[in-house]
Batch of 3 targets.
Target 1
Amino acid sequence: MCGVAGFLENNANRREEHLSQIAHAMGNAMLHRGPDSGDVWVEGCSGIALSHRRLAIVDLSSAGAQPMTSACGRYVIVYNGEVYNHNEIRPELAAHGINFRGHSDTEVILEGCALWGVKATVQKLIGMFVLALWDRHEKRLTIVRDRLGIKPVYWAKTSKNFLFGSELKALRVHPDCPGEINRDAVAGFLRHNYVGGAASIYKGINKLEPGWMISIRANEKPVLEQYWSLDEVVDQAKRSPFNGNDEQAIDKLHELLLDATGRRMMADVPLGAFLSGGIDSSTVVALMQAQSERPVRTFSIGFHEEGYNEAQHAAEVAKHLHTDHTELYVSPQEARDVIPKLPFYFDEPFSDSSQIPTYLVSKMTREHVTVALSGDGGDELFSGYTRYFTAEKYGKAIFRQPQMLRRMEAALIQGLSPKNWDHLGKLIPPSRRPTLFGDKLHKLAKILDGGKDDFYRGLVSHWSDPDNIVIDGAEPKGIMWNDEVKQRIPNFIDRMQYLDTLTYLPDDILTKVDRASMAVSLEARVPLLDHRVVDFAWKLPQHMKIRNGQGKWLLRQVLYKYVPQELIERPKMGFGVPIDSWLRGPLREWAEDLLSVKSLKEGGIFRPEPIREKWQEHLSGRRNWQYLIWDILMFQAWQKENTVSPAVKLSQFG
């Protein structure tokens, strides 16, 4: 795993020493992504500079170092990621007379691009990747991002340069980098707790979206091309759905996941796995242990606060699978100490509070291994989120009712605070009681007045009126508001999964895992997001995903081959921390400073009045606005930290 960066100047008259200095600075801004080594490649006559920071995983020798030049001398690559089928592609290339210098996947990708072209090569790859390839003959730079968006890359086109990098901080050390805050992106952030889509927090800087490639020559406009799309996967699933029975589906998924997991155990460094004790991580660990001759290293963290601790469940699964398990119980102060580091490592405002435990488990894991497998992706592929089977269980009944009745029900729910609903919820047996019962009821109340798509947007929204909070901001109405999606995917649960896979998965879940793990130089791999598993999951009928009001039915059946059902069956628990009580207690002074009218006005982004109203209601205990308040706090903290240059911040956190 690595960090990549670089730039292409319109004016190719710069001295190579000048190009090299800037490229080194861009790479050094991401030292945490690649602490083992780093280098640059420049060509003054072309105005091109490529920078690479290396976390050595496969082929630790100098033969695996980057930037790497092809055997023919025409192409130069910098690459971040892991390709798990490179040993299968290698003989194809050797048959064409290519003599390999080492055994890295980088060299296979590079020589594949030289022989077959970029698009044809990346379509062969199984893995996660961002690659930047310079063609010395065509004077063309091409950048590609993996299908699901596991690895990140940003780009910007200015009047003088084309810039790119794995993280925004790499671009920001370039003297030509845009730096004006994108207020529309801030409005989108308030709704979703992440900056989504192709936009970034800065005007003029973009994300390359999953499954896309971009190419450019000096003084020309960038050309964007999609080489993989979820739409094609969905269409193919419609044409060729899975028609087998339950046993055939279980066997097929089992076979696919064994292969996907086994491939991701490839490493020349110590390897382990995150284990929460939930369906996804337990499945990954079980499949790892089934293919390992020694106990797999597993890692989990625990919290002493009731409702936030899964460590005991992870320990039971680890004991059953006979893994070499390590757990760490984290004090509230240790968790809170992470907060000042978040703006630096995440680069953009990001307010999914599970970033805190994700960073902590990554930090603990890195003390023992260099690579960790993670269970991310199972919810989106196999209908694991509560909203999916809530929609299945209650959606039809809800939307059959007259709108007037739904409004009355919403008013009844809102008549009690979430805290009071939590108290009443204690009458429900713990095994059947959802976590954050009161908050979820109030979310339900908000969407009772709309249709199914309003239902979905309500469930995934934080601030429902971000344009009224952000001064001169207009929330981008992206794919969630696109009526064509409803026509193309009429099944509501399928549609929610589709939208989550294109939005929440890359922009929240995978962003969180990438930034938190790379902050401590740990490579995280996600076998459930092997694109072959994605293809298969979309061919499955919903009754193989949701059954008897429970999600992930098929994935569970694979897991039950290895782990008894009683160790797994319990209500789904989020990977979070008790932000609500922290804001009323030990974080109150810090929050009050950032949420004061003075701070909000000085920031110049938010209207203070609605924020102060929510803050006072939260402090009083009348309402739990933890997520909305955390959005504002994470933006305020980000804005405050980013008034300082990345170079200065490097000295604090590097």
Target 2
Amino acid sequence: MSRWLYKLLLCALLGHATLACSADDPRFSTVAIASALSAFEQTAKIGHPRLFRGGADHSGIVEAASAERAGGVKALSDYLHRTSVRVVDMSFISAAEPLNSPTNLKNWFKQERTLEGLAESAVSWYFTRDSWFLDELRARMAIFGPLVIDNQCHGELMQARAYAWYFALAYDFAYPALNAAERELARNVVKTCALSALPSALKNVKANPRDGIAFHALGKFIGALTIVLGELPEARGWLEPALQTYLATLSPWGGDDGGYANGSSYVLWDTGESLLIWDLIERALSLPIYQKAWVAQLPRFIAYTLPPGTPAGVFGDGAEVNRKEEWARFGKAIMSRYSTPLARWYEKQLFGEDIARLHVLLSPRQPSGSAPWPEGEANSAYFPSVGWAALHDSLADRARVSVYFKSSPYGSLNHSHADQNGFLLYAHGKVLAMDSGYYDYYNSPHWRNWYKQTKAHNAITFDAGKGQGLGADGLGSAQLAGKITRFVTTADYDLVTGDAAAAYDGQVSLAKRTLVFVRPATLVVIDQLRSATPRQWEWNLHTTAPLQTNAAGYKLNLEGAEMCAEVSAPDGLALATQAGYTPAPQWAAATTPHYWNRFFYKTPKPSAYFVAVLRMDCTLPRAQVSFPAGKPVVNLGNRQISLVGTEISVR
């Protein structure tokens, strides 16, 4: 066994799922990258499309386009005809403008979608050989090409990376039909944007790999330069250092367990948009990127944290929305690159995707027929690199009960929120304990003053909504972090403990939360809290409907799902409920109903306990909660859950 394989195995056994465990993988070393580029240049030139290794097909993709994906090819054709730049008013397309307002940002996304049509036209021509698509391609090149060249691709990284990538992808698929001047224009767009933006992208990623815009710009440039390698003289010199940095830092948002700290929406957006670049790295350059530890484990993270049938995503910006189409489109595209039983099962459970998108049409062809749930696969999982735990009663069941818990070393950085030791609760396709708020846009008044804050989550606050820190600029901090200190999974129950004291930026000395999920549908949440200053401690629960008060506590009734809740403390608790949001998101019509339920101590205390028992089936036995000597004890059936020393014991 090689030293590298031994170290990787040791990392896995010890749970050290960090970038350090895979950083010295020799398959992606500086020497290996240089050798791969030299081999590309020294062997017979790979033709186009490079995405297909220069051949006519790759893994049946072209055959699928005239068989099971014929409907998608037709739908893309119809879309391009409807949105043809020769028919639709294109006056919104202009030189690069700063993306410093919601209006400019929305206009850019519309412009980028039109730019994507450049590549879609080329792919449609490749599949059909219909000359209409060549005419459309040329019309789009005539709009965007001079704009980019004349403006020297000046603008923001998001814009430069899109111009380079979509022109290169169009060049790759339409290459034999383009004349010399058209090929030269495409290469010049790549060159101009690389000169303008690649140095800053590379510099920014080296300084901070978690600069998401720069990191994904680096990926797009790598894809574009791989397509023109050997045909643009400067490409090799630019591509080699870009590959070295990109592969060394992939992924900046998680470790070898496949975790992605920025949340379920960004894991699909970011990786889904990276797949074709990864394909080029693997196919054209023979660098086995899908075997890189984080990439290889990515499907498992997605399967456990965004399982089929989930009513919403989990944690971070954009997670609150049911993104069924995107989940199916990106989920199928991602899983199609893997041959594991879990990936095959997951892919077969998804439906409702936009079949006209390139994410679907350019994915590897899948075997027909069903794929069974992998026998022996666990129902719960813990991802140490990002501090997430996903607890399910039955992961294979679309009507499952799911509990998600987060106490992350990434803290509230970037698209993460100040929700350490926060949890989410979904059952029977409904959201019972929600991540509240709406992602209207990054750093909006709603994002900054509600959505990102601890009070917007099912986590602990004090003194009328005060919570975890967000750093000096209010945009989040990795230093104000949490950590999962314990994870136990058994056939009957799961237990996870998080320590979020550091996230409160010195205001709290103890913030420990333990979740015990007793199958099939009971969740016990125990909080241990302490501060040098007496606090009016608060236990937050966010719901999509009002809680109904009854003799046993509180009940949430949703169509097809229910939750009975009891929240206790050694001292008496009061409940305050507030509907809606303050401040409201800019696009409030898109939000779901929201009720902020705040259980709080009536008198400030330097230390506190909370015990919450949530039953997602109100016919299940109630728990008996007591506080002998002031410490929590929960009797649930034949089980006792109690505080022994500093840890929660289940007996």
Target 3
Amino acid sequence: YFTTGKDSLEVYSFRELGGQLGSALLTEGNPLLMHYLMFIPTLIGQGTAEQQTIWLQKAWTCNIIGTYAQTELGHGTFIRGLETTATYDPKTEEFILNCPTLTAYKWWPGGLGHSANYAIVFAQLYTQDKCHGIHAFIVQLRDEETHDPLPGIKVGEIGRKLGMNGANNGYLGIENVRIPRTNMLMKNSEVLPNGTYVKSPSSKLTYGTMIFARVVLVEYAVILLKRAAVIATRYSAVRHQSQIYLNGPEVQILDFVTQQYKLFPYISMCFAFQFAGSWLWNTYNTVNEELKFGQLDNLSELHAVSCVLKAVSSADAAEGVETLRLACGGHGYMTSSNLPNIYGLVTAVCTYEGENTVLLLQTARFLIKAWQNKTNMGKSPTLKYLEMPLEENIPFERSVNWIISTLQQTVVSKINLVNHHINERVKNGETYEDAWNNTSIELAAVAVLHGRTFIVETYSNTVSDFQKKVSPELRTVLQQLLELYAVYTILRSTGDVLRFTGTSRKDIEVIQLWLEELLASIRPNAVGIVDGFDMRDEILSSTLGAYDGNVYQRLFAEAQKSPLNAEPVNKSFHMYLKPFMRSNL
């Protein structure tokens, strides 16, 4: 997206601003993130060559700052329900944009509150007295010199949030604002000067930008999980507390198996999501090239995989960051540990660019459709395993391949059962829509398991590819981490595995012992593995996770910076506490 014909220094600057260095400089969120992540890609993906000539260079050099105004106060993931309108006036060849209600106000776009002076606004297109659905429009919000809001534009910041308070998320109200006809992004569909609407060859062509965002978010979730894993693992090596032997010394808490169980699966998960994210990125680029030639065959599968990977990676990373914070005890609750901030950033990913439950149901719809049309399953690489026979007996063996096959068998059986439940509900008089809604808990669950199964398989394939490229020592560690993620994944699904496959209780006991052996094997290398993530202290910004291990000195030094320690007696004592203490209440 960001290399074609662009100066390499600008590309490098973007990657740094959006990556590790940017996160160190802008710890509470980046107000330019939507400019690079959504505004520019939308110009590329949905703008004509002429529109890109006008807008892209301005955006790339930051002569204008843009944001992506889609979500409204009253509507989020359900894009078809957006209320903002764009009505074409053929007399002036202009669109009139309007937010007819308070709930139509755009709400949440990053950078909108104070930074952006342009936005790509999504609105219902009306022309020749007919609505043609959601389309994208370039709207100027503020004067390019004074930054004052333009007439008809009501813009501001939405207030403090759990995290990302540096992103100045904003609101936008539009009251009968006119923009030129050419400000509608017309690469896929078009409004002619006389108001005639020219339909896009496929509605799916507008998926591109949102898929791109989800690809990036998978990688972003990995970065945040890695950060928390480094902090918690290093702290666990420094912290000595409690005894293993009655008269023995206090040990590193990293020696407790319960602590290892809090840490090591999430270290392994960092690799799992990184490899899955790389697969997604490469596939996205391939499909994006195909779209240029009108090939849409693989777009639906990419959309389904991007949905489930975004949902699973963000949810599991958020769970991981919270578990890693808890693994640091009370000190993990300190803001100076940076774990609360990391959690605020990662949990936001569960909601934006598609709320996770909605994304899981979109993947489930793809799975059910494929199951009902089994002749096409072999054409989708991520669904080939759905062709395996139901209730196939897979003899137990202690291997990653067995885990993958067993998880796949579980997914196949669950999809079959979910499809049966939908059909039974329809047979009993429910509409298909009601049947779908009433089965949605099962549908979301099968999508999650499909996603995790895909991640384990991708992890295994990637490690296999590394076998001849890395040292024997690294090969051993990568294999241990792969096995740990695979074992951890199947144990999370013990109920379904026992329910849908021939796996026995004894098999589960063997897997549990395997888990404990893996924790012991990884223990000697745990700190070295997270050091290999190569995150500088400035990136971690944590009193607990610094490379030198001086946790207690750093905690105390940070405490001294509190404004409440500026004087020995705070003025509040004389103003409030002393009168209260002497009031004999």
